[in-house]
TrEMBL record, chains A, B:
It comes from the Archaea. It comes from Salinadaptatus halalkaliphilus. GO terms for molecular function: molybdopterin molybdotransferase activity. InterPro entries: MoaB/Mog-like_dom_sf, MoaB/Mog_dom, MoCF_biosynth_CS, MoeA-like, MoeA_C_domain_IV, MoeA_C_domain_IV_sf, MoeA_linker/N, MoeA_linker/N_sf. Keywords: Molybdenum cofactor biosynthesis. This is Molybdopterin biosynthesis protein. Signal peptide: none annotated. GO terms for biological process: Mo-molybdopterin cofactor biosynthetic process.
C-alpha cells in the first residue's frame, strides 16, 4: 500500500485492509519442547529416526521362532529351551537357534534369531532338571525350559522397527499449532526444540498527563485517573497471541512522547498508543508518524474509532486507539486483534463469536459504521408447571442487550461481553433481530445470572456464593423497570416499591437504615429532626435508591406530625439534593469530612467504624422474571437465599 | 474417603470419586495485574475509591453554571466572562461566580462553582477588547468572553465523581476468571495486584530404564526409546490450568525411584507417574504409596487404564498413569484433567467436547469400560451438480473414526483427536451412532482434509501448503480400501492400482522409481537383473506400497523375457521379503550398511546423496471421495495440485 492520507473518513474495510497491509509477523524462533504448547510450527518436521528403533516385544513373555510353535496348543504344548532373558533397556546378549526361547519383557529388544513372541500367560516355565512335559508325561532335560501353549505366526506380538514412525516420514507440517498430542509425537522422534513463529511483540504507549498506573496514588484534585487501557489492551494482545510490552507513561510532553514512540517502534512489531483523550497528544503522534514514518490512514468512518491512525514508524506498524476504555477495546477487538492473530498464526477460536437475539430495539445514527458494546444473558430452560425444568441441558437462546452507560465508563466494559458491528446503512435494529457478537475474549461466558436493582451489602455476600453472576446496581426503581422490560433474570428491590407485572419472589431480608455520622456521634444526632432543625451537612442517595424512598416517607411522616409541608422539611436539609449512587458513598463523604451526616445502612456504619442512628428497617426482596426461574443461576441464588439466616 | 484397597477392579465412577476426593487445590497467591489474565480470583474485590474521583468534563468546552445559559440559543447566545482554563491532569486554580465560564478540556476537573459544561462546538470565543455580541451588536468588555449558543441543565456533559464506579461497590466476585475486560475494571479502581488461586503444581515422574529424554541420544541396540509421556502429560497439565514440574528420570532403580517420588510429593499438589511399562517399577510405586502414604484405589475396570493407582504420599495426591502414550493421554483426559481443572478453577471450555457420528461399527469387549481413541473428519458441504457448494458456511456433520494402530504407537496419538467412553454394558456401537468426543485439548480442530495412502515426497510438499491437513501413510492399497469405506476425503495411489468405486481424480504427478544404492554405485548395479543374478542384500517395501506393485510387475516382465516363473526370480533376491513401510526406510538401511541395494525413488536417492538406478516411472494420483469435493481442504489441495508444475 502506498503512502496515503485520507482527508475524508476511510471506510471500515479500508481500515481493515490498511492494518492487514502492515506486516505484524514476528519472525522465527526456536523454543524447547516443554514451551512448545500453543506455538505455531514454521517448518515441516520429518522423523529423523525409526520409532521404535528396534524390533520390540509388545508384551512380557518369550521371544522365539514362530516355526517352533506351529501345531502347539493347550493340550500339546511346544517345549523350548530357555537360553537367556532380556529386559527393557538392555541389549540382548544371546541369539536364538531353532528350539530356543528367550524370556523377554515388554518393550525389550527382540534377540537376533527370534521372529515372534508368546505372552507369558500362554506359557509354563519348567525348572532345570524337571521332566514335566505339561501333560503328565516326562522328558529329560539339562536346562530351563518353557512350554508354549499356542502357535504364533512370524511377527506376532512384535512391533517392528519403524512400524510406528519410519525415518523420513512427515511428522508435523508448517502452521501446526502444537497441542499436547503433537508434543507427544515430537517427543517420540526425539525432538527437543522446535522452530516456531515468534509472537508478534506489541508496544503499548499510554499518553496523557492525567493518567496514573494502577498501584500508584491518584490525586483526584488534579483530575488524575488510573490508566485503564494499557493493561487492558496488553491482556487483549496476549489473548490474541501477541506479546505485550508496556512502555513508561509519556505524559503530554511532546519530546518525551516522541522518544517513547520511537523506542517502542524500534523494539516492537506493532505499536499501539492509547489512553490520552487530549488533542495535543494525538497531534504529536500524528506529526511523528507523518514526518518520520508513513501515514496510511487518518480517520475512519466508525463510531467510536473515528480518530484512528494507521501507519508505520521505523520498522514497526502503528495503530492509534481511542482513549475511552470501551471504545479502545472495541476498536482493538474489531480491527487489531484479527490482524494480530493472523500474524501469530493463532486462529480465532470458534468460541470468540456467539450469536444471539437482540433484547431491545437499537436506533443508530445513519452514515457511520457503529461498534455497539453488548452484554449477553441466556434465557435458560423453560420452567414447567411443577417448577421443574424442561430439558436439563437446554440453555435457551442468548439475548444480546446493548450496554449504554457511555464510552467513558469503565463499568460498561465490565458489563459488556463483546461488540456488535452495525453497518453504516442500518439505522434501526428491531428487538429480536439475530446478531453475531464478537466477544472481547474467547474466555468470556454469559453470566450465570443477570441481576439489576438496589445496591446492598447482604446481596454482595449472596452474589459471592454464585459462579459468574453479573449485577448492575442501577437502583430499585430502574431495576423494576428493567425486569418488566424482560432483559434481566432478577431485580433486587429495597423499601416500599411494588412491581407492576408478574414476578416470582425468590426471598427477602431486612436491613436497618438510618443516619451515619462520625465515630462516637460527636454532634449528638438523635434522629431525623436534627437534620431538619440543625445546621448539619447531609449527603443523600439518588431517587433510584430504596433508601431514598424510605427517607422521603419518614420525612412525610415527620411533616404530618408537625402539620407542615414535606417540601419545607426537605428545603431545610442542607445537602438533601446531594444524591450519590452507591450504598457506601454517602458514608464515605462523612469519613472524608465533606459532610456531617449521611443516609446509610447499619451494616455500612459498622463496616466503616462510623456511628449509626437507626430510623427504621426496610425489606430487600429478590424478584425473578417468571420465565427464568428454571435457570441454574437463578436456582442457585434461591438456594443461597434459603441459607441466608446461617450466613448472617 | 477412608483408606481402602480394591482387590477387585474399581468402577470408573469410583475412580473419579477417589480422584475428586484428593485435594488438588494449590492455595492462594498474589499476582501483579499484568499477569492476572486467565487467573481465578479467590476473593471479592470492592472498589476502594470513586471512579472518576472528581466531577469530570466529558468534552472540550466551557464549564459554567447551567442557570447562566437558560434561554440561550444560536440566535441569542449567553455571553459569559472567561475567567480561566483547566486541562486534564491539572488542579483548577479558579472558582466560578455567576456569569463566569472556564475553558475546560476533556477529562479535566470541573472547577468549583460550575455545575455543567457546554461543548466548544456550541460556543464562540470573543477576544479581549472585542465588542461583538455575536449578532452584530456591540457590548463593551474588558476581558475574554465566550458566547454560549445553547442552554444546558445542571449535570450536562459532566461525569460526577463515583458515577462510573462508587467506592464500596462490588467490582469482581470470587471465582471470576480474569479476562482482559476485567483487567480494565481492576485498572480503573487502581488495583495492581490480585489474590488468585495458585495453579495446582503437578510433578511428573517418569520411570523405566529404557526411557531417554528427547534431545539426548537413544541407543536402539539397548532398546532405548524416547520418553513420550513426560512432555505430553506436562503439556496436558498446563492445558488444564496446572503447572507441570518434570522430575529427573528415575530409571528402574528402586531407591532412586522412591527418592524422586518423595521429593515430588513434598513439592507438588499432585504427582503423576507414567512412562514405565515394567512391572517392577509399578511394584515399587505401589509399595511406597501403600507403606508410606495412603492407597485409595488400585486397579480400575477400564481399558486401557486397568493398573491405575490412586492415593496420597506426603501432602500430595498421587495418580499412576498407564505407560503407553495413547493410554496415558486417554486416562489423563478422562480422569485427571477434570479434577485439575476443578482445582485450578478453570472450567473445561465447551470446545473441549464435540459430538459426531461414528464412521464405522465398533465391537467392544463386554464387562470393561472402554476408552476409545478416535479421530475426527468433517463431511463438509454437499457438492452441487455444477461443482459448487451448497451453503458456504455449512461444514457438514463430524464423522468420528476409531484410531486403532495399537496403544503402543505414538502415531495413533498424532492421529487421534480425542477419546470416546464406551460403557462396560455396551458391546457394540453401530456405524452412524451419535457420540460425544472428549478432545485431547480444546485447541484440537478436525483436520481440514483427511488423506490416506501412499507415502511420497511430492505429496509431503503439497501437504505443507495446506492448513492443518492429516495424512495417514498406510500404503496405496489400504488407502483405496479406506476411501471406498467412506471415512477419508482423499486417497493417494501410486502405480497401476485402480479404484473399484466412484472417485474424483483431483490430479497426479509422475515419480521415477528404481534401485537406490551407495553413493557412486560401487557395486556397479545396472538394473533388476543384478538383484536376481548377483549376491546383493536387498530391502523392499511392504505389499501395500505402490512401489512394491511396480517392482513385482517389472519382475514379471523379466521372468517372461527369461521364460521362467516369477517366483524363481523372487526367491533369488536376498531380502525380497524385508518389507519396510515408508518410502525412505529402505534407502536408510543402505546408509546404515544393512543392505546393498533398496527399492526407492529418484527423489529420495537425491535427497540422501545415494546412487540411483532407474527402473521406471509411475504415476501418483490423488483420488477424492465424490461427496467431499466441496470441502475447503479438498479444494485447497486441488488448487495446490494445479500449481504443482511450478513447485517442483
Amino acid at each position: 500500500m502506498d503512502r496515503k492520507e485520507f482527508r475524508d473518513l476511510a471506510s471500515p474495510e479500508t481500515a481493515r485492509e490498511a492494518i492487514e497491509s502492515l506486516s505484524l509477523e514476528g519472525g522465527i524462533e526456536r523454543v524447547p519442547l516443554e514451551d512448545a504448547r500453543g506455538r505455531v510450527l514454521v517448518a515441516r518436521l520429518d522423523a529423523e529416526l525409526d520409532v521404535p528403533g528396534f524390533d520390540r516385544a509388545s508384551m512380557d513373555g518369550y521371544a522365539l521362532r514362530a516355526r517352533d510353535t506351529f501345531g502347539a496348543d493347550e493340550a500339546d504344548p511346544a517345549r523350548l529351551a530357555v537360553v537367556g532373558e532380556v529386559h527393557a533397556g538392555e541389549e540382548p546378549d544371546v541369539a536364538l537357534e531353532a528350539g530356543d526361547a528367550v524370556e523377554i519383557s515388554t518393550g525389550a529388544v527382540m534377540p537376533s534369531g527370534a521372529d515372534a513372541m508368546v505372552p507369558v500367560e500362554r506359557t509354563d516355565r519348567v525348572e532345570r532338571g524337571s521332566t514335566a512335559d505339561g501333560n503328565g508325561g516326562a522328558v529329560s532335560d539339562d536346562g530351563d525350559a518353557v512350554l508354549i501353549r499356542t502357535s504364533v505366526a512370524p511377527g506376532d506380538n512384535v512391533m517392528f522397527a519403524g512400524a510406528d514412525v519410519a525415518a523420513g516420514e512427515r511428522a508435523l507440517g508448517p502452521g501446526t499449532r502444537i497441542t499436547p498430542r503433537d508434543v507427544g509425537l515430537l517427543s517420540a522422534i526425539g525432538v527437543d526444540e522446535v522452530p516456531v513463529r515468534s509472537r508478534p511483540t506489541v508496544g503499548i504507549v499510554s499518553t496523557g498527563d492525567e493518567l496514573v498506573r494502577p498501584g500508584e496514588d491518584v490525586d483526584s484534585a488534579r483530575g488524575e485517573i488510573y490508566d485503564v487501557n494499557s493493561y487492558t489492551i496488553a491482556a487483549g494482545v496476549e489473548d490474541a497471541g501477541g506479546e505485550a510490552v508496556l512502555y513508561p507513561h509519556a505524559g503530554d510532553d511532546q519530546d518525551e512522547m516522541e522518544r517513547v514512540l520511537r523506542e517502542a517502534a524500534s523494539e516492537c512489531d506493532l505499536v499501539l498508543s492509547s489512553g490520552s483523550t487530549s488533542a495535543s497528544a494525538v497531534d504529536v503522534i500524528y506529526r511523528v508518524i507523518e514526518e518520520q514514518g508513513e501515514l496510511l490512514l487518518h480517520g475512519v468512518g466508525v463510531k467510536p474509532g473515528k480518530p484512528m491512525l494507521v501507519g508505520r514508524l521505523e520498522e514497526s506498524a502503528y495503530v492509534g486507539l481511542p482513549g475511552y476504555p470501551v471504545s479502545a477495546m472495541m476498536v482493538f477487538r474489531t480491527f487489531v486483534a484479527p490482524a494480530l492473530r493472523e500474524a501469530a498464526g493463532v486462529p480465532e477460536p470458534e468460541t470468540a463469536t456467539v450469536s444471539g437475539e437482540l433484547a431491545r430495539e437499537v436506533r443508530s445514527e445513519q452514515g457511520r459504521h457503529r461498534l455497539l458494546p453488548v452484554g449477553l444473558v441466556e434465557r435458560g430452560p423453560t420452567p414447567t408447571a411443577d417448577g421443574g425444568r424442561k430439558g436439563a441441558d437446554e440453555t435457551g437462546e442468548t439475548l444480546v442487550y446493548p450496554v449504554d452507560k457511555g464510552s467513558g465508563a469503565t463499568t460498561s466494559l465490565a458489563h459488556a461481553d463483546g461488540v456488535v458491528e452495525v453497518p453504516a446503512e442500518t439505522d434501526y435494529l428491531e428487538a429480536g433481530a439475530s446478531l453475531s457478537v464478537s466477544l472481547f475474549s474467547p474466555d468470556v461466558r454469559p453470566p450465570s445470572i443477570l441481576g439489576v436493582g438496589e445496591d446492598d451489602p447482604t446481596l454482595n455476600r449472596l452474589l459471592d456464593r454464585l459462579t459468574n453472576p453479573r449485577y448492575l446496581s442501577v437502583g430499585s426503581r430502574p431495576g423494576l423497570r428493567r425486569l418488566r422490560e424482560g432483559t434481566p433474570d432478577i431485580a433486587v428491590v429495597a423499601g416500599p416499591l411494588e412491581p407492576d407485572g408478574e414476578v416470582v419472589e425468590l426471598g427477602d431480608w431486612e436491613r436497618e437504615w438510618g443516619l451515619v455520622t462520625r465515630a462516637g456521634n460527636p454532634d449528638d444526632i438523635d434522629g431525623l429532626a436534627d437534620l431538619v432543625d440543625r445546621d448539619l451537612g447531609f449527603v443523600n442517595r439518588t431517587t433510584d435508591s430504596g433508601l431514598r424512598t424510605s427517607l422521603e416517607r419518614a420525612l412525610a411522616t415527620l411533616a404530618d406530625d408537625r402539620g407542615v409541608d414535606t417540601h419545607d422539611l426537605v428545603d431545610a436539609i442542607d445537602g438533601f439534593d446531594v444524591a450519590l449512587r452507591a450504598h457506601e458513598s454517602p458514608a464515605r463523604r462523612v469519613i472524608a469530612g465533606e459532610a456531617d451526616v449521611a443516609i446509610g445502612l447499619a451494616d455500612t456504619a459498622d463496616r466503616l467504624d462510623l456511628a449509626f442512628v437507626p430510623l427504621g428497617t426496610q425489606s430487600v426482596r429478590v424478584l425473578a422474571n417468571p420465565d427464568r426461574t428454571a435457570k441454574a443461576g437463578v436456582c442457585d441464588l434461591e438456594s443461597a437465599l434459603v441459607e441466608l439466616p446461617e450466613m448472617r
